[in-house]
From TrEMBL:
Species the sequence originates in: Desulfobacula toluolica (strain DSM 7467 / Tol2)
CDD domains, per database record: AdoMet_MTases (cd02440)
Domain of life (superkingdom): Bacteria
Keyword Transit peptide included in the entry's annotation: no
The name this protein goes by in its record: Methyltransferase, type 11
PANTHER family: TRANS-ACONITATE 2-METHYLTRANSFERASE-RELATED (PTHR43861)
Keyword Methyltransferase among UniProt keywords: yes
GO MF entry, a single one: methyltransferase activity
Stored SUPFAM superfamilies: S-adenosyl-L-methionine-dependent methyltransferases
Length: 302
């Protein structure tokens, strides 16, 4: 145990912590800790709220510096997002009822909503005004913040894709979501997983330098997600360990120590389904999808 700061895990309150990394991308004084009880990773210290607002005001610049996106044009962003959105919909289609009411929080330009709107009535929360306007093509309602949604609005499913890790207080957030859900409503989240193989299998320092970011307050584990959701009256119905990046990407990281891939590895190992499935079976994946119901019924007992 390495807990000289007398800290406790913000999720389960355990003081049994280890330092996972001694720096965070663009926030060198911040460190990464991991709880040995619920296995969640978290940053300390996290940004103050005023710092966070300023950070998100310049968020597109942050992503450009990291090479995640090279454009702020909503149409180009939308096109770039469609591949992941299509795969996501293929995975999750069965969890959305015909003509159900859906709320996506952090919709960006609405790439997932474009898929979902063929089956459901969609509403979105998106702080970026340009992306929110673009998402209006695929949604019947658009809000800047969760708090702007009128009292009485109810949804069958609330979904968040790579958003939940940004939430400062996940307990309060889920409480707000619960009030927006119908009695048998569900939440679907997709988040980065603390068992990402480049962290948990290869233990690659260059990847850690890139991976840990100041706006990702938490890097969730299976147990950590279960703890947060059950604390707010939700109960797990499904959990999916999903590996987004293949062998070619991992070999490129091991060779170069930076993002960007490698054409030769892509040609040789681009279709590395067996590798990804092995990681998923071992629960050593870069992504975890967690689905929980509001009413507390265990899925198998319904």
């Amino acid at each position: 145990m390495n807990n000289n700061l007398n800290m406790e895990c913000p999720i389960c309150k355990s003081a049994n912590l280890d330092q996972m990394h001694d720096r965070v991308w663009s926030a060198r004084d911040t460190k990464v800790f991991r709880c040995n009880h619920c296995f969640t990773g978290f940053l300390y210290p996290i940004m103050k709220e005023a710092e966070e607002k300023k950070f998100y005001a310049d968020y597109n610049e942050h992503t450009k510096k990291r090479g995640v996106t090279l454009t702020t044009d909503p149409l180009e962003l939308h096109k770039k997002s469609m591949k992941d959105a299509s795969k996501r919909w293929e995975q999750l289609d069965n969890f959305f009822m015909q003509d159900g009411r859906i709320l996506e929080i952090g919709s960006s330009t609405g790439a997932f909503l474009e898929q979902c709107s063929q089956k459901c009535e969609c509403v979105c929360v998106e702080p970026d005004s340009i992306n929110r306007a673009f998402a209006s093509r695929f949604s019947v309602g658009q809000y800047e913040y969760l708090e702007n949604i009128p009292d009485g609005e109810k949804f069958d499913v609330i979904c968040l894709f790579h958003v939940f890790e940004h939430i400062r207080d996940p307990f309060d957030f889920l409480s707000k979501c619960s009030r927006l859900l119908n009695e048998d409503g569900s939440i679907i989240i997709e988040v980065p997983h603390i068992e990402d193989p480049l962290l948990s299998v290869y233990d690659l320092d260059s990847y850690k330098d890139f991976y840990f970011q100041p706006m990702h307050h938490y890097i969730y584990s299976e147990n950590g997600l279960r703890y947060v959701f059950e604390s707010e009256g939700f109960y797990e119905t499904h959990i999916v360990f999903h590996q987004r990046y293949g062998l070619d990407n991992h070999l490129a990281w091991l060779k170069k120590g930076k993002p960007g891939g490698d054409v030769k590895f892509k040609e040789l190992f681009g279709n590395s389904n067996e590798y990804c499935r092995a990681l998923e079976k071992a629960k050593k994946t870069d992504t975890i999808i967690y689905i929980a119901k509001k009413n507390g019924k265990n899925y198998e007992g319904q």
